[in-house]
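Below is a complete specimen:
___
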Amino acid sequence: MLKKLVLYTLFVFLVGTATAQEKIFLWQDTGTKNWKQTTLTPYLAENNTSGTAVIVCPGGSYFWLAEETEGHGVARWLQSNGISAFVLKYRVAGFSAFFWNQRTKKHGNQYPDMFNDAQQAIKWVREHAKEYKIDPNKVGIMGFSAGGHLSMSTVCYSSKDQRPSFAAPIYPVVTMNPPYVHKRSRRALLNERRQNDQTMRDSLSLEMHVPADCPPVFLVNCVDDPTVEYHNSILLDSALTAKNIKHKYIQYKTGGHGFGASDEKGTEECRQWKNEFLKWLKENIY
């Protein structure tokens, strides 16, 4: 019985890890601070006939990362649907900054570190598109919660060569201003001092910086979200609409927050977003 249990555990481990490749250190040999904290993990789809790729940005309030539910789990789902995925582990403030506010005394990870990581990920995937059998014109980015803010930031603040082909912010943090700001994400992103700087707040509020040449956007959230006030997505939808940007906004009544691509978390209603995204992708990107 014990032998069977060991073999089963080994089988589950191998199945769960065989589809992901070795982590890539995006800043290796560049002199970038804390470079080992930034990695990209590929999940390549064998049947990726469209050449589409998605960089996945987990959430975690810019303090930590929900790597499984909003990262590797999402990547495996994309991979199983013929889309190559890359999980981005970007620099975050960390638990010490959350508990002790130490960044008032030393730098630590904060803006623009995570923005640089996301831009570098897009650049890296495009530079290696040929070896991964990816179309460099079909490299998109998807993010959840604070990762949604990060993914949309690559659209709002990047030069064209670092801008994704499409973006999918899922229940995203959007604004840095009241009354809808997610204060924990703002503190982690800007640090304890800069979070009170109105210029910085405005400069990183996405609804104020949607570019006229914004790529297509797929946006989802739930009205009953207890973590990120649902009006964040309404602000982004309004800004995209005002600029006549091609986008799809789906607002579910139930589902809460943090469900990622899970088949169990959230509600049956909100879990429909996965099929809706695949349909949208085929209609707008393939």
Residues 1-19 have pLDDT under 50 and may be disordered. DSSP finds nine helices and eight strands in the chain. Residues 2-17 form the longest helix (16 residues).
